[in-house]
User: Fold this.
Amino acid sequence: MGDLRVVVCGGGAAAGVGKLIAAAVSRGWSVDVTATRTAIEFIDTAEVVRASGKAVRTTYKFAADGTRISPPADAVIVAPATFNTINKLAQGIADTYALSSIADVIGRGVPTVVVPAVNEALANRRPFRQSIEDLRSEGVRVLFGGSDGWGPGVKEFPWIQALDLAEEAFGLTTIDSRVPMRS
Assistant:
């Protein structure tokens, strides 16, 4: 299928990232997980490593010559994306490994899906709404709002919907009988 980079930010929904990894692997993706330092407090890193087959990244890795090494990415899912991450990403602030890796793939035109996880008060803030618009204008698929069926107050985090959107953006339009159909 391809290389899927999953960037996990801190927040209660992060604990469910295993659902996304399992679904992606079953559909044939190779999954590489990047976690913010705060996300590490919410995820079971041993389970993520077992499910993805790869170590969780939290910082840059460098080759012997000093060049930065990043995992390949054919598509990216940022979920759950915090208020802070959304706003910094839209403003071009790349002051962490997670933010700079996301900014880099967006700049290279890699299909990117962002799933905010914010409460109603934060979702109502003008800077947040503007950041969502700015990211969408750059071609980022932000899964948020009434038309997407996701936002504050919705109980079930849309892991599979995010994967479906990433696959759509990646251009998967044919059916592979070895890969389970999306529901």
Q: What stands out?
A: The beta strands are 2-8, 29-35, 61-62, 68-69, 75-81, 112-116, 141-142.
